[in-house]
Amino acid sequence: MEKTVNQKAWFLVLPVLLLVAFSAVIPLMTVVNYSVQDTFGNNQFFWAGLEWFKEMLESERMWDALGRQLMFSGIILAIEIPLGIFVALNMPKGGFWASLCLVLMSLPLLIPWNVVGTIWQIFGRVDIGLLGYTLDALGVNYNYTQDTVAAWITIVVMDVWHWTSLVALLAYAGLKSIPDAYYQAAKIDQASRWKVFRFIELPKMMGVLMIAILLRFMDSFMIYTEPFVVTGGGPGNATTLLSIDLVKMALGQFDLGPAAAFSLMYFLVILLISWVFYTVMVNLDKREG
């Protein structure tokens, strides 16, 4: 008997497809349209071809912002991944204290990005902020609005405070998935704590760690609200990351063509690196399988 195929279920997906088209595809096509045209206002456009892409590739401003962005993402990953693993390894494995730690670790993730920026903007002020006032009282010259090093330290510490919990929770989930038989075998073999971590815990956490790295890279590479609220990209252009520079170009200077080309290259860089991480994750899953 031939089986009847019912395709009516696709109608349930139609609202989602329409929503994605409205919120993602249509704006993306608009950006593509701006990237190959020039305008002098009054809704009049002139074909520019690849002129804006060439201009952006030759722009020192874009390459400087890209360098700052890569440095920021690299610092964030270098701090948050090991710190998150360390926190997960030292969290209670069960009971009341484990539940309490999970709740406390989740709290920073619930705070909106603009509120995080505002908190650290006030926290670091020398006149009214606890951190700034304390450092000033100790004789430490700390002013994130005028000193480049202080500005970088502030936005890095702010991001570490905000997002290390995500890495810790993912690593903790990976640790909880390890069967007790592995630990019992390691105890019988009298394996050291380092060997247990190296040969049991780390390989079993590798899948969730790749997800954590992917999520943290994408978020840190697209970060805008927090550093903009705290430093505004300053002092000078010291903390002007790619997203901040793009917004300044599009809204501050109203250079729609270069900004559109800039944003498309920005998108392609994120897409490329995310694809690399995804490929590594798939290969790890196949190897474990």
Give the structure's gist in a few sentences.
The protein has 289 residues and is mostly helical. It has twelve helices and two strands. Helix 7 packs across helix 9 and helix 9 runs antiparallel to helix 12.
Characteristic key phrases:
mainly alpha, MetI-like fold, 2 strands, globular
List strands and helices in order, with pairings.
Layout: H1 10-35, E1 37-39, E2 45-47, H2 51-57, H3 60-89, H4 96-106, H5 113-123, H6 130-137, H7 148-176, H8 180-188, H9 193-221, H10 225-230, H11 242-252, H12 256-288
Antiparallel strand pairs: 1-2
Helix pairs in contact: 1-12, 2-12, 3-7, 3-9, 7-9, 9-12, 11-12
3D architecture notes:
- The chain crosses the membrane at residues 12-36, 70-89, 96-123, 149-175, 196-218, 264-284.
- It holds the Pfam family BPD_transp_1.
- Keywords: Membrane, Transmembrane, Transmembrane helix, Transport.
- With 289 residues, the protein is mainly alpha-helical.
- The protein has one domain: MetI-like (MetI-like fold).
- Helices cover 73% and strands 2% of the residues.
- The protein has twelve helices and two strands; from the N terminus they run H-E-E-H-H-H-H-H-H-H-H-H-H-H.
- Strands 1-2 form a two-stranded antiparallel sheet.
- Helix 3 crosses helix 7 (148-176), helix 3 packs antiparallel against helix 9 and helix 7 crosses helix 9.
